[in-house]
Structures are given as structure tokens and as C-alpha cells.
């Protein structure tokens, strides 16, 4: 029986691409804001991989984002203010997210299981009005998805077995890792996360526990 749903956030719950680009355009008006946002996001996984692979101790995502910001700004030939890093705390939710989460919360515990820090996820939840019961994810495990420790630490924090928890994500890779850790899985596609030419995660790549059109459909299926 699924008692809790834990959610990927960047891409699954919020539109990071256009939201970050909006803040980039305001702070750095002479750069291609969409490309800058995409380049900034492209540094995300390599930065975490060094930590996942043991080449660096745990560093919260806020700090990795700031390091990546200055790296990308240098490539674009500009100097970015440190304050631009808070763009990741002001990401707009997809239209179905808040109503879907609100319905799901009536019958299930809901929480993020994100690579974002507790501080980042708390501020983002306040901005986007995400009605979480609590904040879970990388900070608890001091590790990054898709390492199993992140999923298992989130389950343990709720005092639930993995078989009582469902991971919800728009990314098949996240779900493969969660399933391997013993969780149920739900796929919700976000076909424009990376823009109109997105070529990945357009459809489920396995027989996930639930496949939903959006969070409203997920709430209906989980009722």
C-alpha cells in the first residue's frame, strides 16, 4: 500500500528553463537568456557526479549552482552577480502541479525527493505554493540521486519501508533508480522541460507502477 509519494522537483514539478531564463534576462540583458539557462543546467549533473562517485565530499546544490553560474558566465563573457543564484528558488510550477498536489495530499503524505537542498526546496515551495508535508531529498542522505541512499533516506525519514513509498518523476532514469531501491514508481511526462526540441523522456521507458498525463490524472489514479 502506497502511503507516501515523493517527487522529483526540477522539471517534474517546476519549469526551470523559462523561469531561470527570466531572471537571467533581468540580470544579464546582453546574453541569450534561454541558452544561458540551458548551459547552467547542463553543469548540474557533472557537478553532482563528482560527489556521487566519491571524488568530492557532499556540497549542497546551492553551492554547486553558484560555482556553475560563474563557470557558465565566464564562457558567455559576462560577470554574473551571486544574487542570480537565487533564480532556482523562483521557479514556476506547471499548471497542473498545485491542484494535483493538493488533491494527493488529502490521501497521501507528499514531499519532494530532490537534489535541491532543504533551504532551496523550502524557499521554492513558498514561491510556487507547493503544499508539501515536509522536505526530503539529498540533504538528508548527503548524496545525490540517482544513488539509492537518497531514496532510502527519504523513506527512512518518514519511517516507511520503500514498498510503502512511490517516487514520482518526469525522468525515466530517476524512476529506474527508485525502483531498484524498492519504491513504487509513477511517470508524468514533461515534454517541454528542455524546450520544443526535447528528445528525451517523452514517454515511459518501462512498466512503471503508474503512468499519468499530469498531476491531476495522477491524483485521480491514486484516489
From TrEMBL:
E.C. designation(s): 3.8.1.2
Catalysed reaction equations from the record: an (S)-2-haloacid + H2O = a (2R)-2-hydroxycarboxylate + a halide anion + H(+)
Keywords, ordered alphabetically: Hydrolase
SUPFAM superfamilies from the UniProt entry: HAD-like
MF annotations from Gene Ontology: (S)-2-haloacid dehalogenase activity
Highest rank taxon of the organism: Bacteria
Root EC class: hydrolase
Transmembrane segments: none
Pfam families: Hydrolase
InterPro entries in the cross-refs: 2-HAD (IPR006328), HAD-like_sf (IPR036412), HAD-SF_hydro_IA (IPR006439), HAD_sf (IPR023214), PGP-like_dom2 (IPR023198), S-2-haloacid_dehalogenase (IPR051540)
The UniProt record lists the keyword Ligase: no
UniProt-listed NCBIfam families: HAD-SF-IA-v2, HAD_type_II
PANTHER family: HALOACID DEHALOGENASE, TYPE II (AFU_ORTHOLOGUE AFUA_2G07750)-RELATED, HYDROLASE, HALOACID DELAHOGENASE-RELATED
Recorded family membership: Belongs to the HAD-like hydrolase superfamily. S-2-haloalkanoic acid dehalogenase family.
Record's function text: Catalyzes the hydrolytic dehalogenation of small (S)-2-haloalkanoic acids to yield the corresponding (R)-2-hydroxyalkanoic acids.
Protein name per the record: (S)-2-haloacid dehalogenase
